[in-house]
Amino acid sequence: MIERMEKSGLFDFFAAKQTINDKTKKLRVSNYTVPFEYKGKFLFNELTRQFIELSDEEWKQIPFGQTFAYDEENEVLKKLFEDYYLIAEDGDETEIYMSFRRILKTVRKPYKGILQYTIFPTSTCNAKCVYCFEENFVGYTMTKEVQEQVVKYILETKMPGHAIDLLWFGGEPLIGAKIIDYICSELRKNGVEFTSMIVTNASLLTEDVADRMKNDWNIRQVQITLDGTQEEYDARKCYIDDSRSYFPQAIAAIHRVSDRGIPVLIRLNLDRNNAENLRELIDYLEVEFPKKNNLYVYPGLLHQLMREKNAMDMWGVHASLMEYARSKGFCSGLMRKSLLDIDMCSYEDYEHSSVIDPRGKLTKCQHIEDDSRFYTDIFHYNEIQNQEAWAEITRPNILRDKCKGCSYLPACTDFDKCPNEKVSCKVMKNSMEMCWLKYEVDRLRAGDTSKVSGVAF
C-alpha cells in the first residue's frame, strides 16, 4: 500500500484519523472515494485529496458496493477507514464535508480585508470572438483618476500582513498594459506584496511585455485561449485588424512566457463544430513544444453549452479531447493547490475578494453580463449604492439539491449563488479528475516524486 500524495497538514489538524466508537457498525466505501485502474490499482479521496496505490491482494479485500463489518485485525481496511476512504454505513459524507468547510471558513473569517482583486484595466478588446459572453459590453478603459483610486482602494481594503493576488481580466487586459504597469508600480512603492495572474489573447504579448510580466507584474500564471489551428483560430477570433493572422503571435507569446518559467494554461475553447480541429491543434502543440515545460493544455466547453440540457454529448467529446492532450504528454486535468483546499467562488468569499471594472464599479464575480451586479464603486466603497445587488451577494449560500451526495462535491463550487451553474458538472469533474490522476501516475512512474503542481484550473 503506497500513499501517492502527502497530507497537507491542514487535514491532519482538523480531522486527524477517523475513529469508530461502535465497532458493531457496518462500513462502506465512501462516496468521496473514487476507484480507478491505470498502470495499477488506486483509490482517490475527493475530500482529503490523497490517492493510494493498492496491490491486487489489497484491492480484492475492498467490498465495493457492499456493507461489511469493521475488522480491526485487517490492516488494509483499518488503514482505509482511518484515512476516510471508508466510512460508517450510516455516515453522511455531505455533512462531514460541510462540517470541515464550516471549520475552515470560521478560521478564515476573523481575518479582515481582501486577498484577491480582479481588475479590468479595460473592457475593450481587439478581437470579436464569435462566442464571447461580453459581446454586448460597452468598451471602457481606466482613466488616470480611476487608476489612482484603485491603488488607494487596495491599500485601504487589503488584508493586513498578507500578500494579495491580482487577476488581470478584460476585454483584452494587455490593451491596458500601461495601466497594469502603474498599479503594480504604486503597490510596490507602498510595500504591498502581490502576485498576479492574467487572462489574455496574447496578441499584444511582446518580448518586452513578457519581461514586465516576470519582473514587474509578478505574474505566476497566464491563461491563453486557442480556438483551433491557424485558419480556424483566425475565423473564430475575428481580430479587428484582419490584415494578418495573429496565430503565429499567440504561439510566439506562449514560448516567451513559458521560457521565462511562468506556467501557461492553454485553454482550447470547444463547441459543436471544432473538436476534430482541436485534435489537430494538440498534434501541432506537441511538435511545437516538445519539452512541454510550464504548459497545461485543456479543453474548455463554451459557457453557453455548459448551461444547455441537450449538451450532454459534448461532455464525452470534452473528455476525449482531455485524454488526447494527456496522451501527448500535456497535463490536462484539474490540479489543486492543497489536499483540503475548500473551493469557494468569489460570491461566497465576498469578504475577501473584489472585482473592479474599468469605471471603478465594484462587484464580486468577473462574469459580468450587465450592471445589475455592481453594488457600489471604489470612490464610495463604504456605501452600498445598490441594495438589491448587495443582498444577493451577502445572502447565505444554499447547497444545491443535486450536489448533495455527489462524489465531486469537495472539488466543486457547489452553492447556488454561482452564476455559472453547469447542467452536466459531474461528468465534467469526472473527466478532469481522471485525466489529472493518470497524469500523476505517469509522472510518478517516471520517477518524478515532486509535490503536485500548484497550478489551479
TrEMBL record:
One example GO MF annotation: catalytic activity
Record-linked InterPro entries: Aldolase_TIM, rSAM, rSAM_sf
Gene3D superfamilies tied to this protein: Aldolase class I
Residue stretches making up the Radical SAM core domain: 120-285
Spans through the membrane: none
The entry's keywords: 4Fe-4S, Iron, Iron-sulfur, Metal-binding, S-adenosyl-L-methionine
Signal peptide positions (record): none
Listed CDD domains: Radical_SAM
Pfam families: Radical_SAM
Domain of life: Bacteria
Cofactor: [4Fe-4S] cluster
Protein name: Arylsulfatase regulator (Fe-S oxidoreductase)
Native source organism of the sequence: Eubacterium cellulosolvens (strain ATCC 43171 / JCM 9499 / 6) (Cillobacterium cellulosolvens)
